[in-house]
## 1
Amino acid sequence: MQIQSKALPQSSFLRRAIRSLTAAGESSAETAHPLLVVSAVALFTIFIIVEVDLHSAQLQALGLLGHGIGIDPVFLSP
């Protein structure tokens, strides 16, 4: 007597469902305007800079941000 796995029919059903979703997404996908992408990246960068500036004391306490002391002069070259 041979035991058949129930995972095979389920996996083929999942594969068909995923394939139909990706095919539907590819046919209706449009590309974003390059200026929109550049604007979004610039705004995101400014947002990150402002957030780091606002939370610099907390980041220094965690050790994720330098303390502003700089490099020890002993390690600098002459």
## 2
Amino acid sequence: MDTMSSGTILFRNTMRITDGHLDGFRRAIAQAVAFAQEHGPQLMVEVFIDEERMLAHSFQLYRDSDAIRTHWRLSDPYIREVMEHCTVERFEAFGEPDHDIVAALKTPGGESFPFTVSPRLAGFNRLAESGLE
């Protein structure tokens, strides 16, 4: 456990679910998470849904920028399927992703959605201790 520095990066993606697409969104997210659990490099993935406001929040924890690149390469078809049912309302990166990762935070059409990057100040994790790493 390293309390002084960490290369981990946490993504929080807030998605607006398109009207009439709730069931399709649920199916696409379930498939994407199942694929990530089986093949992806993420240390953690959690998705939460607010049906009343038609918002979903996805949290993904990565070891480093290389893991993000691997995820994007492997999961592109699943990401595209999810995006057929929603739009990105806000994207937040916590940590220090490489410059190419930050540059790639754009929608498939090239226009940018609102995103922020917040560098790490301090913290720790117990993933290795709990056997999750």
